[in-house]
Design a protein that fits this description.
Distance between the termini: 19 Å
Number of strands: 2
Shape: elongated
Helix content: 25-40%
Structural class: alpha+beta
Strand order of the largest sheet: 1-2
Order of helices and strands: EHHE
Radius of gyration: 17 Å
Number of domains: 1
Length: 78
């Protein structure tokens, strides 16, 4: 099989996961409500603003449970 090499390739992956009847510790729920009210994105590559919420998300939200997985090619440079 022939191949092609790209100098740079950037792909943005997004998906959503629906959870229901979820029990969340109060401290994490408070951080979740703050982030929601402020319309903030939780980005794991930024300094930890909501450390307990970020850890909860890592442990409970998985790509395999996603509803609508999307791939967007952002940079493609030959």
């Amino acid at each position: 099989m022939r191949t092609k090499t790209f100098k740079e390739l950037s792909i943005k992956v997004t998906y959503s996961v629906d959870l229901s009847e979820v029990e969340i510790p109060e401290e994490i729920a408070k951080q979740m409500e703050q982030a929601y009210d402020r319309r903030e994105r939780i980005c794991l590559w930024r300094p930890l603003q909501y450390p307990k919420l970020e850890q909860w998300l890592i442990n409970h939200v998985e790509e395999e449970d996603s509803e609508d997985l999307e791939y967007e090619i952002e940079i493609l440079e030959a």
